[in-house]
Amino acid sequence: MQKQAKKIIILFFVIALTAAAYSSCLDNGFTNLDDPSHLLGNSLVRSLDKENILEIFKQQVNRTYIPLTTLSYALEYHFFRYEPFIYHWDNLFLHLFVVAMVYVFALRLGFSCFSAGISALFFGIHPMHVESVAWVTERKDVLYSCFYMLSLIFYFRYVQEEKKGLFGLTFLFGLLSILAKPMALSLPLILFACDWFLKRRLTIKTVVEKGILALAIVPMAFITYINNSLVVTASSDHLKAILIFSWKTAFYIQKFIWPVHLSPRYLFPEPVSFANLNYLFSFCFVLIFLLIIWKLRKNRLFIFSFLFFFASIFFLLQGTDHYADMPPVADRFMYLPSLGFCLLFGKLVEEGMKKSKHKKLVKFSCTMLGVLLIISLCWKTFFQCNVWQNSVSLWTKIIEQDPGNAQAYSARGVAYAKEGLYAASLKDSSYAAKLRPDRYKAYANRGYVFLNTGKYVEALNDYNRAVNILNVLMRKDMVEFEEYRRKNQVKKALYYYRHFRYKKKDLAHAYYNRAVVYDYRGEYKKALGDALRAKDFGKTNLDGYIKELRELIKD
User: Fold this and answer.
1) How many CA atoms within 13 Å lie on the side-chain side of 441?
2) Cα–Cα distance measured from residue 300 to residue 297, given in angstroms and rounded to the nearest whole number
3) Per-residue pLDDT at 234
4) What is the DSSP string of 241-307?
5) Residues 80-124 pLDDT 10s
6) Residue 77: which pLDDT band, with cuts at 50, 70 and 90?
7) Per-residue pLDDT tens digits for 60-70
8) What does the DSSP 8-state code read for residue 321?
9) Is pLDDT larger for residue 98 or for residue 440?
């Protein structure tokens, strides 16, 4: 009874400290970085009838198959509409549940209450996890991790007790995990790593177990892979691919060890060569780590920690030449893969305390350093949550670390405009247009500001620019599409066709906005022409507006 009470007390302390570190995110709102496509502008979340739920399981959001995550938004919307506190509270609750499962998992690995508690606490308060918790769109991270951890825990019980029902639960939670986020694709590999850690022999039975799970989850992950493979192209230069792989690997390990200068967007260092010190240092860093792994290859937990990291993030470490709108690296990608390092840290702290048991001064010094580390991480996490408070704070952080980012200025300009801060919006939109004169979104955003401040001539000029740039880019995409289609290079052809469709959608909005400007200026025939073009390019719900314009022309 005393032992159970001790486990509960430690878990309560870990949960309470983690909740305190993340408490600032409960005041956050939504952002214009993916929240519109996943939640605010996603019609799938606005109904819980049978037909809509079936549609949720058929559709993808931002090229990603995440039906369970979308369903969770639909449940929240049904009861609370768009109340930000609820969405942030649910994200935090799911994170706390994952932390509790990390604690249970560590105990299953044979950790003491103390080392399991340290591992779970380190996982809970690590600043790299803020993006996954404080950003509503990243519900998929914490949700898939909940089911992933449950699957691992039941798998450990299955190995120990050999009950088929426990493997059934492993399979069920693994399936739910992949329906929340495709990163659960790594689960069969992690189960092999668990077998190795538990010294379970590799047999036909153990392979079949993982094969059954893989047959269920791989097809669902493949849906997302196919769509993103059209945006992210693997490098054909093997040396280049190795350098990018090294840079990404070093980036994640370094950020985990020293979580400073965290950002929602990281720069991809160019050029990709040994002449660039970023790649030279990263390559050497990875070599040193491989040597350390080889040196400590007999330490089972150390090897398991790195196996967990590499197996769960390997699919995101590929060397790629082109990212389009895909980030090369992101804090959120490290959410669950960091678990192995957290377990290793918990064990190292316990071993250090044991060795300093009879050295009071050393033990006191280590304890104080540990307390300072926990306070520092909590402090960093607490304030990192404020980055995601709203769209302005988010893009301001990105601009601080990347002053030449035209997209950031443009997006912050939109955020200012929606808050009625038109002077600030105009300043950001103009600067975005200056940085990237070829970027149609900068002109479209500035046109929106001019429209809302009654400057119709300026608005018309900007929408004309946006429309002209879009038409040129669309023609270029179609030329590339036809070229690659004739060469039977399907992947590249589909890539350009996809971007043609994205620009077509943006052009529909540009034509509609220009129609509104013409409408305000009393040029109803031009307004009707643009409204009809917007409809042709896919903008919906314009029949009433078009009818109204036709009546105005008649009058």
Assistant:
1) 16
2) 7
3) 54
4) HHHHHHHHHHHHHHHHHS--S--SS----SS-STTSHHHHHHHHHHHHHHHHHHHTTT-HHHHHHHH
5) 999 999 999 999 999 999 999 999 999 999 999 999 999 999 999
6) very high
7) 898 889 999 99
8) E
9) 98
Distance from C-alpha of 65 to C-alpha of 181, rounded to nearest angstrom: 7
- DSSP letters spanning 64-121: B--HHHHHHHHHHHHHHSS-HHHHHHHHHHHHHHHHHHHHHHHHHTT--HHHHHHHHH
Q: CA quadruple 432, 435, 439, 444: dihedral positive or negative?
A: positive
Q: Is 282 exposed, middle or buried (CB count within 10 Å of its CB: 0-12, 13-18, 19+)?
A: buried
Q: What are phi and psi of 233, to 5 degrees?
A: -110, 125
H-helix segments, 314-421: 339-355, 360-384, 391-401, 406-418
Residue 257's CB: how many other CB atoms inside 10 A?
9
**Dihedral sign computed on CA atoms, order 541, 543, 548, 552:** positive
Residue entry with tokens 């405009």: 417
Amino acid identity at 71: L
Answer positive or negative: Cα dihedral of 434, 436, 440, 442: negative
- Summarize the confidence of residues 65-78 as an average pLDDT: 96
Compute the distance between CA of residue 480 and CA of residue 484 in angstroms, rounded to an integer.
Answer: 6
How far apart are alpha carbons 151 and 173 in whole angstroms?
Answer: 5
Q: What is the pLDDT of residues 513-549, one digit of tens each?
A: 999 999 999 999 999 999 999 999 988 889 999 999 9
C-alpha angle 252/253/259, rounded to 5°? 80
HSE toward the beta carbon, residue 363, CA cutoff 13 A:
10
What size, in residues, is the chain?
A: 555
- What domains are there in the chain, each with its CATH number? 2-387 (no CATH), 391-554 (1.25.40.10)
Whole-model pTM: value is 0.92
283-293 residue pLDDT tens? 999 999 999 99
What's the Cα-to-Cα distance from 30 to each of 52, 82, 208, 221, rounded to whole Å?
Answer: 24, 9, 44, 27
- Residue 313: its pLDDT value, please? 93
**What is the Cα Rg of the chain in Å?**
26
